[in-house]
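G., the chain you wanted modeled:
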Amino acid sequence: MRSNLTRKQLYNCILEDILSGRYRPNAVLNKIPFCAKYDVSKEEVDNVFAALTDDYLIAYDQEKGYFIKKYLESEIKQLVYLNYTITTIRFIKLMHSLTPSVIEKINSCLQELKKLSQQKNDLPKIMQVIDNVVGNVTQIVKTPLLDNILKKAINLWLYTRKVIAYNIQMYGKQLINFYIKVLELTLNQDELSLREFLLSFINIWETAFLEYYGKILK
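Predicted structure as tokens:
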């Protein structure tokens, strides 16, 4: 009996396989194991591989086919700076969109972050809370053009989530405190301090990113 997976479901299943860390950079992806695992055709897997390529999660070469993209250090640095630039624009826009309902949402995120900062590092909870904060900001600040520009950087983040998770026990509290400070500056409408604070973190995140990437994805 053939699988009833939709294309989106199959995409998510194969994406999770890639995010599992099972494949190293430059590893060639064979369609047959995916066909067998999910009981789908080669064409269906090929369509997902093409979509993953469009989303910058894997790459394609005429000679070797689809493979895991290996990002160069220079590319990672560019993406970290791109992420900083768009994060700055997004929070400044949020700062100028402070309605009572938006302030309530920000305060709710702050309470959750501050509560988490007092607890022992809990990897799943940290990831969940940070995703919730970013999701709320994205929902409030509609920036379709920025979202499209950031697509490559976001997908690099998705690809390295497992890498960040691997060592988040060391940097978890730093991530939490980062978002607490950013949200407090946003509420205080202190644009200059917000810009300076975000800028001060470029080297920190760049170093951490390269460290994570180097430890797991050699």
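The chain has twelve helices and two strands.

Shout if anything looks off.
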